């Protein structure tokens, strides 16, 4: 039992430093017998306990943040996820999302693991800061996605709800300003969710699955066996048209596909890669 008198000023000081609730701060100071640094450590341990207890919980809400370098050749995307929508709107959560993105921009990490290990201005790592906010808020918080991509020209898009973001790498602009066209393609990716840029980018397992599904449907329709392969090939081409970016009908003008739209914008313009992240998908 603490023998030290805990004042409101002490509690407020601890609250200002850690962001924890008033009652949590008071309990920590009492348990630490007034030792301020020990109380800070106790609050950090509380965050670790909450994080461990909620480690299996689903994180379908959160915020996607994007930064594109001034010269447009690099884009970084961070998806910071939480369990519920109200938490995603809390100022502390949004500030953390921006701090994590800023750390990525400054340090240029290649992976979530490298990003999590970056030390922020207050001396804590990104991972430690996330754990502490987990303890304060009482919900699981995690960096769900991180992308760091480079190319000739990067264009980004964030959906209005903040839960979906897209980075697109364009090649062959030849000095043409493709900002507007790039945004159109990024929005196409957001809306149509292509599985790859072009046919050759589709995972072989996906192709095999599409072929087998097509064959099964064709046989159930009673088509002759000698026609199965040919019809299945046609269905695969339809899959490519619907599901690969350059072959999709351009949403804003169905008379052309995305490949043709880009070529009309600037001869030889194309997409070499993209990253689409959607929280709660």
From TrEMBL:
<keyword id="KW-0251">Elongation factor</keyword>
<protein>
    <recommendedName>
        <fullName>Elongation factor Ts</fullName>
    </recommendedName>
</protein>
<keyword id="KW-0648">Protein biosynthesis</keyword>
<comment type="similarity">
    <text>Belongs to the EF-Ts family.</text>
</comment>
<dbReference type="InterPro" id="IPR036402">
    <property type="entry name" value="EF-Ts_dimer_sf"/>
</dbReference>
<dbReference type="InterPro" id="IPR018101">
    <property type="entry name" value="Transl_elong_Ts_CS"/>
</dbReference>
<dbReference type="InterPro" id="IPR009060">
    <property type="entry name" value="UBA-like_sf"/>
</dbReference>
<dbReference type="InterPro" id="IPR001816">
    <property type="entry name" value="Transl_elong_EFTs/EF1B"/>
</dbReference>
<dbReference type="GO" id="GO:0003746">
    <property type="term" value="F:translation elongation factor activity"/>
</dbReference>
<comment type="function">
    <text>Associates with the EF-Tu.GDP complex and induces the exchange of GDP to GTP. It remains bound to the aminoacyl-tRNA.EF-Tu.GTP complex up to the GTP hydrolysis stage on the ribosome.</text>
</comment>
<dbReference type="InterPro" id="IPR014039">
    <property type="entry name" value="Transl_elong_EFTs/EF1B_dimer"/>
</dbReference>
<keyword id="KW-0963">Cytoplasm</keyword>
<feature type="domain" description="Translation elongation factor EFTs/EF1B dimerisation">
    <location>
        <begin position="76"/>
        <end position="280"/>
    </location>
</feature>
<dbReference type="Pfam" id="PF00889">
    <property type="entry name" value="EF_TS"/>
</dbReference>
């Amino acid at each position: 039992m603490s023998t030290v008198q805990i004042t409101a000023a002490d509690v407020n000081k601890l609250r200002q430093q850690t962001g924890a609730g008033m009652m949590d701060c008071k309990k920590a100071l009492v348990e630490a017998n007034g030792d301020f640094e020990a109380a800070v450590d106790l609050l950090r341990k509380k965050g670790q306990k909450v994080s461990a207890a909620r480690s299996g919980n689903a994180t379908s809400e959160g915020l996607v943040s994007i930064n594109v370098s001034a010269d447009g050749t690099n884009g970084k995307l961070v998806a910071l996820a939480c369990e519920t929508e109200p938490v995603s709107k809390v100022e502390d959560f949004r500030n953390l999302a921006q701090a994590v993105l800023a750390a990525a921009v400054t340090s240029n990490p290649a992976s979530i693991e490298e990003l999590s290990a970056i030390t922020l201005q207050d001396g804590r790592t990104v991972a430690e800061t996330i754990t502490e906010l987990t303890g304060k808020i009482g919900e699981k918080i995690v960096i769900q996605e991180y992308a760091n991509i480079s190319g000739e020209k990067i264009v980004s898009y964030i959906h209005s709800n903040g839960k979906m973001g897209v980075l697109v790498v364009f090649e062959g602009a030849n000095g043409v300003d493709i900002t507007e066209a790039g945004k159109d393609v990024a929005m196409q990716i957001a809306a149509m969710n292509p599985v790859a840029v072009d046919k050759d980018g589709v995972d072989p397992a996906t192709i095999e699955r599409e072929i087998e599904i097509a064959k099964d449907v064709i046989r159930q329709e009673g088509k002759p066996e000698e026609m199965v392969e040919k019809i299945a090939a046609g269905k695969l081409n339809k899959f490519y048209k619907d599901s690969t970016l350059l072959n999709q009908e351009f949403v804003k003008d169905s008379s052309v596909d995305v490949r043709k739209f880009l070529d009309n914008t600037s001869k030889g313009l194309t997409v070499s890669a993209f990253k689409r992240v959607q929280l709660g998908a």
